[in-house]
Design a protein that fits this description.
CATH class of the largest domain: Alpha Beta
Radius of gyration: 22 Å
Number of domains: 2
Helix content: 25-40%
Strand content: 15-25%
CATH topology of the largest domain: Rossmann fold
Number of helices: 12
Largest sheet: 5 strands, mixed
Oligomer: single chain
Number of strands: 15
Order of helices and strands: EHEHEHHEHEHEHEEHEEEEHEHHEEH
Strand order of the largest sheet: 3-2-1-4-5
C-alpha cells in the first residue's frame, strides 16, 4: 500500500445532509494511514485555482463533528468539465496542481458529472506520465447513479419527504371541512422519481396521503389528473399530492417550463410545478388549494437524517481512501444490497466507466398501474433506507450544534489560473 504523497478531496454539485459525514470519514481514514488530506475549496474550482485546504490542521473533534453537520464543509460548485479535447487546458492545469503539491490521490464526491470528471482525470494522468489515482465517491439526493443500490444523501431526503408529507397531511385533514381541500408538495427530481416515490412511504392505505404521486418517468395528463383529484376529494374529503419537479407533458415539455432556467451544468433548473398544479385544480375544480416547495430544506435537513444513510455515507468515504491507497484507479465504492429483510448491504468497487454519464430511473414496476402511487416492490426497496435516527447534538439554546471549520490554506506554488465557470 503506497502512502507517500497527499490526497485531495473535493465536493461537487448539490450538497446533502450527510456529505460532510463522508468528508469526515475520508479525513479520519487518511489520518489512520498517516496520509495528509487536502480539500479543494469550492469543489473542482478550488483545484483549478490551487485553492487548497490542509485538513491536518483541524482538531480531531472538529472532524468528528462533520458527521452531524449539513452543507458542504469545504464548499461545492456546479462546474462540469467538457471532453479532454474541449477542456484540455483545465485538465492539464489540474495535473499541474497535483504535481506541484505531490497529490497522488484525488477523491471527487459527487454524482454523474463528477464520476465523469474523475474518469477523465485518471486517463489524462496516464497520458501526462503523472501517477494520480482518481476515485469517484457517490453522493446525490436524486438517487440516480447507476450500479449502486442507493446513493448517500438519498435516504435522508427520502425520510424528510415522507415525514413532512405525513405531517402536512394531518394539518390538511384537520381543516378540510372549511378550508384547504387540495395540497401539493413539490419535490426534487429532474428526470428520476426516486424522491417522489419516497413520499409514498407516508401512507399505507388508499385514503392515506399522498393520494396522488406524479413521477417524471410517466407523461402528465391534465385531464386524467384532475379527474383523479376530484374523485379523491369526493371520497376522502381532501387530496394530498406529491409532485416531482421534472414531470412532463406527453410532448416532452416540462410542466414547470414557464418558470424554468438552466444551472451551471446546462441542466434545466426547474421550479413552479406545485403552483402550476394548484392553479389547475383551483381554476378547473373550484377547490381551495395550498402548495409547498421544500427546495433546499429537503437536502439540508440533518436533524431528521436517516441513520442508514449516515452509515452508508461514512462507509463510502472510508472505502474510497482504502481503494486509493491500495492502488485502485477510476473506480467508485458503491452500495450493494444483500437482502431486504433483514436489510443488509456491503461496499464494492465498480469501474467509473459503468457509472459516468448514466442515469438510473425509477423502474415502472415501482409505480402502481394507475400511475399515481408506489407498489409493494417500491416499499421493500425504500423502507430500509429511511430507518434509524441519528440526531445531531443540541445546545442550551435549543439549536443543533454544527461545526464551522477553520480552514488552513495551503501556500500556492503556481501562477494564478482563471477558471471560467
Amino acid at each position: 500500500m503506497k502512502t507517500s504523497g497527499k490526497l485531495l478531496y473535493a465536493q461537487s454539485g448539490g450538497v446533502t445532509a450527510v456529505i460532510n459525514a463522508t468528508a469526515g470519514a475520508v479525513i479520519e481514514t487518511c489520518r489512520q494511514h498517516a496520509v495528509t488530506a487536502y480539500a479543494a475549496r469550492n469543489g473542482i474550482l478550488g483545484a483549478l485555482r490551487e485553492d487548497l485546504i490542509d485538513t491536518s490542521k483541524e482538531a480531531p473533534a472538529a472532524i468528528r463533528a462533520l458527521t452531524h453537520t449539513p452543507g458542504g464543509a469545504f464548499g461545492s460548485c456546479r462546474v462540469k468539465l467538457k471532453s479532454l479535447d474541449e477542456d484540455r487546458t483545465r485538465y492539464a492545469r489540474l495535473i499541474d496542481v497535483f504535481r506541484a503539491h505531490d497529490i497522488r490521490w484525488f477523491l471527487y464526491n459527487g454524482g454523474n458529472d463528477s464520476a465523469d470528471t474523475a474518469l477523465k482525470l485518471s486517463r489524462l494522468g496516464r497520458a501526462m506520465d503523472y501517477d494520480i489515482r482518481c476515485i469517484g465517491v457517490p453522493k446525490t439526493v436524486d438517487n440516480d447513479l447507476a450500479v449502486t443500490d442507493c446513493c448517500p444523501g438519498f435516504g435522508s431526503v427520502a425520510k424528510y419527504t415522507a415525514v413532512s408529507l405525513r405531517e402536512c397531511a394531518l394539518d390538511v385533514m384537520s381543516m378540510m371541512d372549511t378550508s384547504t381541500r387540495v395540497f401539493v408538495m413539490e419535490v426534487m427530481g429532474r428526470h428520476a422519481g426516486w424522491i417522489a416515490a419516497a413520499a409514498g412511504l407516508a401512507g399505507h392505505s388508499r385514503d392515506d396521503a399522498p393520494h396522488i404521486i406524479l413521477f417524471p418517468e410517466l407523461a402528465f395528463d391534465p385531464a386524467t389528473f384532475l379527474a383523479q383529484v376530484r374523485a379523491t376529494v369526493n371520497r376522502a374529503g381532501c387530496c394530498v399530492i406529491a409532485a416531482s419537479e421534472g414531470i412532463r407533458y406527453a410532448d416532452g415539455r416540462f410542466v414547470a417550463d414557464a418558470h424554468a432556467g438552466t444551472d451551471a451544468f446546462g441542466h434545466t433548473q426547474l421550479g413552479g410545478v406545485a403552483p402550476a398544479l394548484a392553479g389547475m385544480v383551483r381554476d378547473t375544480l373550484q377547490l381551495k388549494t395550498h402548495w409547498a416547495l421544500p427546495d433546499y430544506l429537503q437536502r439540508s435537513a440533518r436533524h431528521i437524517a436517516s441513520k442508514t444513510d449516515l452509515e452508508q455515507a461514512q462507509a463510502v468515504g472510508r472505502a474510497a481512501v482504502e481503494y486509493a491507497l491500495s492502488g485502485a484507479n477510476a473506480v467508485m465504492p458503491v452500495i450493494k444490497r444483500r437482502s431486504d429483510a433483514p436489510y443488509r448491504w456491503k461496499i464494492e468497487s465498480v469501474p467509473l466507466t459503468k457509472i459516468a454519464n448514466r442515469e438510473k430511473k425509477l423502474p415502472r414496476s415501482f409505480i402502481t398501474r394507475d400511475g399515481y402511487g408506489i407498489t409493494a416492490a417500491a416499499r421493500r426497496y425504500l423502507a430500509p433506507l429511511i430507518r434509524g435516527e441519528a440526531p445531531p447534538p443540541y445546545g442550551a439554546d435549543g439549536l443543533p450544534k454544527y461545526v464551522a471549520l477553520k480552514p488552513a490554506t495551503v501556500r500556492k506554488r503556481l501562477p494564478a489560473f482563471q477558471a471560467k465557470h
